[in-house]
Amino acid sequence: VVPIFHDASSRDDEALSYSLLSLALLAQGKQAEAQQAAAKSNEVLTKVQDFATRLQIDLANAYIEGMTGASSNDAGNRIAHAMKALESVRETAARQGYAGLELEARLRLGEVELHSGKTAVGRSRLEQLVKDARAKDFTLISRKAKAVLDSSNAH
């Protein structure tokens, strides 16, 4: 699918496709492939024109970095960098009025915090997110945050 966007010179769609592919690969446990797809979306990112698309890609790439960072030699630095990038996306999305992206950034931050051992902070963030997302009628994000919390309880 991605080569179609490249040939059609639709850089926004190409970058977003690589970004979504990276998330799908991560969900399948294919960390190396997820990192490769994220790197590819980053290469195209400089040519992306749509602001919301840029935020989505930055969000996905930071999440991939945070979730795969624990397996690297410089795990602490990569995870800290990812969390800083996620917080930056959250702030920018909030400032620009992208409520869905702001909430998704909070979800991803909470997931990275739990994954990196910052359990109390991650749980607190996700518990508040469940309430905030529900109050704003972002039911899917509320459910995702609840599912992450429930699965963290099982571990």
Structure description:
The chain is mainly α and 155 residues long. The protein contains eight helices and no strands. The chain has helices spanning 2-7, 11-27, 31-45, 51-68, 75-96, 99-115, 119-135, 139-154. It is globular, with a radius of gyration of 15 Å. It starts with a helix and ends with a helix. The mean pLDDT is 91.
Secondary structure topology:
Elements: H1 2-7, H2 11-27, H3 31-45, H4 51-68, H5 75-96, H6 99-115, H7 119-135, H8 139-154
Helix pairs in contact: 2-3, 2-4, 3-4, 4-5, 4-6, 5-6, 6-7, 6-8, 7-8
Q: Which labels suit this protein?
A:
single chain, 8 helices, mainly alpha, 155 residues
Shape, please?
globular
- Classify the secondary structure makeup into a structural class: mainly alpha
| Rg on CA atoms, Å | 15 Å
Mean pLDDT: 91
Strand content: under 5%
Q: How many strand segments?
A: 0
User: What is the CA-CA span between the terminal residues?
Assistant: 37 Å
Helix content: over 70%
Low-confidence stretches: none
Query: What's the story with the biggest beta sheet?
Result: none
Number of helices: 8
Order of helices and strands: HHHHHHHH
Quick take:
This protein has 155 residues and is an all-alpha fold. The chain has helices spanning 2-7, 11-27, 31-45, 51-68, 75-96, 99-115, 119-135, 139-154. The longest helix has 22 residues, at 75-96.
